[in-house]
Structure formats: structure tokens, C-alpha cells
Design brief:
Chain lengths: 268, 276
């Protein structure tokens, strides 16, 4: 594996339930190393803490115990420089057109307006949104809005891109094609990508390594190396190895999903 | 590098030009119907007045009101009253709006305090604020203070509730996006929270303006010796229809006109967000 870009050591997260005030052990302990420039995916049953893990790495939430490092520096409830996040929900600002949405974060970090324009044009072009630069999010489809969010993340040139089920709301064909786009962007930017997904095929298609999480409290119970070449796209699904990877993921995940369903049944 | 231009379903929601044209035509038709309804109402009134169903002492025909309206404005004798009332309406509106947004924003961060005040907000409009006017006169005298205060009291809670409503709807993901862009609390408020709430804040402005008119003009009837409300009341007791109806018409035009402008602005914002 490459030199670690992100390191998690004994990371746990506990919440106080708003319903009954009890402490809920949501996550961990988790130990993980993600290599520089690696495409790393996490799969796990619903409610296992995948998104919480992403928010911990992004610095949006504090860890309860343990330590997270990005580029050798501790992430301590502070958004580290060089991190970009694409969320599952529509995160477009409805009052801004595509161009201003993409430029949103850049205006704070870059004073040179010509540089802002250049980078925004580049990101919009990369995501194939050139024709829609003056459109508002309400005039775009779900897939295009998600592309706007990806462009907004890319324009800041992050060294670590965190993707929280970014294609969750899209149809299957669009997901496959968006997956191709993300792979291309990953190769082009050289960034490390950390993908959260519930779709095993998506993880198997995109990632170099895939961690499988247990039911709550989420722990890493298996890490699967896909062994794909860096130059790949959605046609990898035709590869025999693809079936082997997804079946191994499902074999590990099935019992955990059943545990989650059992808990849901018990609480219903 | 450039990604594949479009993907299946990409244009599914992209508004086609024909749909936009259809919406534009419908909007024109609605405007036409609205004007027709108002004109129809005026024509009916005109006929009822001219045929004597409504007698002249009760109400002059609309065309007469318009003539008197022009004469009254041209004479200039009411300008000081109009100016005074409008200044008080504006002051009440600005105070109610600024206070309401300030209190609403502050309350949004304090759940317990908000829950404590919720019953007050829920029952506030059951309180007849005008009933307190003797108290306000004792406290603030017979000047403009009590009138402005009533305008503020009537509007401020509507603004607080609408502001809270808007703030409640700011999606967490937008706040997270602001955090990832490393915006501070003030920048987040100015660049994310307030712009998101803009349609709600415009609704709040409409309410504050309407209540400012009601509060100020209404209280001029009972606790003032100047202003448009007082002049309408004075004209009424003296059977001076040539003054009373034009003033009522002027208040109608000002109030509806200002609210109409805000509504137009609100519609533009909502349309841009795909909410209309």
C-alpha cells in the first residue's frame, strides 16, 4: 500500500440519544490507513455509522476516543485544509446559478478573481456543465445537480475527496456513468478518494480497497482488495473478478445486514 | 479532460422552452383575470351608485372618488398628513422587521427559550393590542410613539415566527457545505442561512408592512390629532366624502402597491428556486 494519507487509530463515536438521553455507541473502535492517491470505499448495513465516519474524517464531528490524522496532522474538530466533501443530499445553493455554486468555496480561499474564473470554467467544463453555467439548480436534473456539487468540490483542488453516497438518488444508468466520471477525475487529480456507499457493485467497480463495516457499533470487519488497474471504467463489471469481489462483500455483509434488520424489527 | 456531455435523464427536469412559454402565457392570463375581477367589481359599484342602490351620502360613485382623489392630491393640503402617516408606517415596519429578525435569529439558537415562548407566539394574535392604547398613551403620551408601538407590536411576532420558520428549513447539508468551505459563523449566516431564508424574510416583510399599516392608521383613528387615519375619521364625522373616500383609496393603493412589489420580488425568488 502507498504511504498513508489518512490514518485512524482507535476511533470511536458515541452520541447522546435525543429520544431518551442514553449514550449510543455508534462507531468503533476503528483502525484504518488510507494510502495517498488510493480509491477507498466503505460499505456497511444501514445505520452502521458510515456517514458518521466520513464526518469524523472531514472534521465535521469530534471523535469520542482515538485519533484521526490527515497528512500527518490531527483532525480535531476542525475542517482540514485540502479536504472536499460531496454529500448524498442535494447541496446546491438554490439561489445561486451553477457558476456561482461552483465558485462558492473558492471565493474565500482565492483572492485573484481571474484565477477564480479560470478554475470555475475548468471545473464546469470537466463536469460537462458548460451549457448550464447560468442555470439555477431548480432547472437541472438530480444527476446534473450532483455534478455541480462535484465541480464545487473539485474546483478547490482537494487532496482528499470524501464522497457520501453521492449517487444515492440517481438511476442505475446514471450511477454507472457518474462512476466513470469519478474514476476519470480521480485519475486526473491524483487525489485520495474515500467513498461511502451502500451499493456493493458501485464499491466493487470504483475502489482499490473496500472496507466492510459491521452493524452498529460500526467496526471494520473485512477489507477487500479489488486489484483493479488504475485505468478502468464501468465496463469492469464484465470482469469475472468483479463477481468474486461483490460476492465476497455480500458474504461478509449479509449477516450484519440481518442483524440490523433484526434490530429494526425489534424496535418496531 | 471533459466528462461525457450528458447522461440519461440529465435533461429530464431541464425546463424546456415550450413549458416556459406555456407558463408565461398562463401567468398573463391569470393577471388578465385578476384585472378583470377588479374592474368588474368597480363597474358593479359604479352602477349601484349611479342607479341609487347605494345612496350618494353613503358612497359616491368610483369615478367621482377618483376625481376627488386627484383634486385632493393636487391641492396639497393632505401631504403633511400623508407624510406623517407614511413616516410612522415606515418606522413601525423597520422596527418590527429588524426586531423580529433579530429576535427570531437569536431564539433559533436557544431551543428551551423558544419552547417557553411558543405558547405566547401561538396565542399572540388573540390579544387585542388596540385595547392597550390607554396604557400606551400613559406611557408614551399623545405623540407618534403609541401609534408606532402598536404597529410594531402587531407585526413583530409575525416576523419572529416567519424567521424561525425559515431558519428551521435550512438544510443541514448546506451548513455542512459552508463548514467544509471553512466559512465562519458570520459568513455562514450572510452567505448561506440568510440567502436560503430570503423568501421567508420577504413573507415576513409583507406581514410587517401590512401590520404596520393596520397598526398606525388604525391607532390614528383613536389616539391622534393628525395623520391619514385621523383625517378619515374626521371626514367621516363631518360627512366629507370628498376627503374620506380618496384617503381610503390612497391607503389602499399604498398598502396594496407596496405589498404587490414585495410579492413580485418573492415570486421571482421562488421561481428561481423552482418553488413556483
Amino acid at each position: 500500500m502507498r504511504a498513508p494519507h489518512v490514518t485512524l487509530r482507535g476511533v470511536t463515536k458515541q452520541f447522546r440519544s435525543s429520544a431518551n438521553g442514553q449514550v449510543v455507541h455508534a462507531l468503533g473502535p476503528i483502525d484504518l490507513e488510507i494510502g495517498n492517491g488510493e480509491f477507498f470505499a466503505i460499505v456497511g448495513p444501514s445505520g452502521c455509522g458510515k456517514s458518521t465516519l466520513l464526518e469524523l474524517i472531514a472534521g465535521l464531528l469530534p471523535v469520542s476516543e482515538g485519533r484521526i490524522e490527515f497528512e500527518g496532522r490531527a483532525v480535531a474538530q476542525q475542517i482540514p485544509d485540502g479536504v472536499g466533501v460531496v454529500f448524498q443530499e442535494d447541496a446546491c445553493f438554490p439561489w445561486l446559478d451553477v457558476r456561482h455554486n461552483v465558485a462558492f468555496g473558492l471565493r474565500k480561499s482565492t483572492r485573484d478573481l481571474h484565477e477564480v474564473d479560470r478554475r470555475v470554467d475548468e471545473a464546469i467544463g470537466m463536469m460537462g456543465l458548460g451549457e448550464f453555467a447560468q442555470s439555477y439548480p431548480a432547472q437541472l436534473s438530480g444527476g446534473m445537480r450532483q455534478r455541480v456539487c462535484i465541480a464545487r468540490t473539485l474546483v478547490a483542488k482537494p487532496r482528499l475527496i470524501l464522497l457520501d453516497e453521492p449517487f444515492g438518488a440517481l438511476d442505475q444508468q446514471t450511477r454507472l456513468l457518474m462512476g466513470d466520471e469519478v474514476l476519470r477525475l480521480w485519475r486526473e487529480t491524483g487525489a485520495t478518494v474515500f467513498l461511502i456507499t451502500h451499493a456493493l457493485d458501485e464499491a466493487a467497480m470504483l475502489a482499490d480497497r473496500i472496507a466492510v463495516m459491521s452493524a452498529r457499533p460500526g467496526r471494520v470487519i473485512d477489507v477487500v482488495e479489488t486489484g483493479w488497474m488504475r485505468e478502468r471504467d464501468s465496463r469492469i463489471v464484465e470482469n469475472v473478478q468483479f463477481g468474486a469481489v461483490t460476492s465476497r462483500l455480500w458474504k461478509t455483509l449479509r449477516d450484519e445486514s440481518l442483524k440490523t434488520m433484526g434490530r429494526m424489527g425489534a424496535s418496531a | 479532460m471533459r466528462v461525457a456531455g450528458t447522461t440519461p435523464g440529465d435533461h429530464a427536469n431541464a425546463a424546456p422552452k415550450t413549458a416556459q412559454r406555456a407558463r408565461g402565457t398562463r401567468a398573463w392570463a391569470v393577471t388578465l383575470y385578476q384585472v378583470a375581477v377588479i374592474m368588474g367589481f368597480v363597474v358593479v359599484l359604479e352602477v349601484l351608485c349611479l342607479t341609487g342602490v347605494i345612496d350618494k351620502i353613503t358612497m359616491p360613485p368610483p369615478h367621482r372618488i377618483v376625481v376627488d382623489f386627484v383634486k385632493l392630491l393636487a391641492s396639497g393640503k393632505m401631504w403633511p398628513e400623508i407624510g406623517k402617516s407614511m413616516a410612522n408606517v415606515l418606522l413601525a415596519f423597520v422596527l418590527a422587521y429588524a426586531l423580529g429578525i433579530g429576535i427570531g435569529t437569536a431564539l433559533h439558537g436557544y431551543r428551551t427559550l423558544r419552547d417557553t415562548l411558543d405558547p405566547l407566539f401561538a396565542t399572540y394574535y388573540a390579544i387585542p393590542v388596540f385595547a392597550f392604547y390607554p396604557l400606551f398613551i400613559v406611557m408614551f403620551g399623545l405623540g407618534d410613539g403609541p401609534q408606532v408601538l402598536i404597529g410594531v407590536l402587531l407585526g413583530v411576532v409575525a416576523v419572529i415566527v416567519t424567521t424561525l420558520n425559515g431558519l428551521d428549513r435550512v438544510p443541514a447539508v448546506l451548513r455542512k457545505t459552508a463548514a467544509i468551505a471553512r466559512l465562519g459563523p458570520l459568513q455562514t449566516a450572510l452567505r448561506v442561512t440568510l440567502p436560503f431564508c430570503a423568501p421567508y424574510l420577504l413573507t415576513a416583510a409583507k406581514l410587517a408592512l401590512a401590520y404596520a399599516f393596520i397598526g398606525v392608521i388604525g391607532s390614528e383613528f383613536i389616539m391622534a390629532r393628525t395623520g391619514m387615519g385621523y383625517e378619515i375619521g374626521f371626514a367621516y364625522t363631518n360627512f366629507d366624502n370628498a376627503t374620506m373616500y380618496p384617503l381610503i383609496l390612497l391607503i389602499l393603493l399604498l398598502s396594496v402597491g407596496m405589498n404587490g412589489l414585495l410579492t413580485r420580488w418573492e415570486k421571482i425568488l421562488l421561481a428561481r428556486r423552482g418553488m413556483r
